[in-house]
Amino acid sequence: MRSLLRSLVLWIFGGALYFLAEVGWKLARGHPEGISWTMLVLAAIVCIPLDLCNEHLPWEMPLWLQAVIGGLGITAAELLAGLLLNTWLGLGIWDYSGLPGNLWGQICPQFTALWIVVAGAGIVIFDWLRYWLYGEPRPRYTWKFK
Fold it and tell me: What is the pTM of this model?
């Protein structure tokens, strides 16, 4: 139970952090109507597999590979959420149909690349929060296979 509560704090923190970035992005682009509470929920949900995967991957695995795995997981979650929220429920929260390489307007290579960067940052943030808040092992990263 204690482990679940610790993780819940991280998931909510990560979701809120991403949601604030999303709000800033949409406001800067002049699209405040595109801001949806569903993005906060989706961001917190996406933090779950990212944190769990991060928790179980060995420190010896290069950070870039952890980020790629996390980014692909986020992209998969974005596809599922997009099909549910945008296609099935018709909420129209995002539409990548104008971008090259998109799949049904829900995911695209450009945002997959962005999610890889976001996942890398999230992994580092979660690791350090676990260290500072819960006394877990100090983060240590490698960039290449040993």
Answer: 0.85
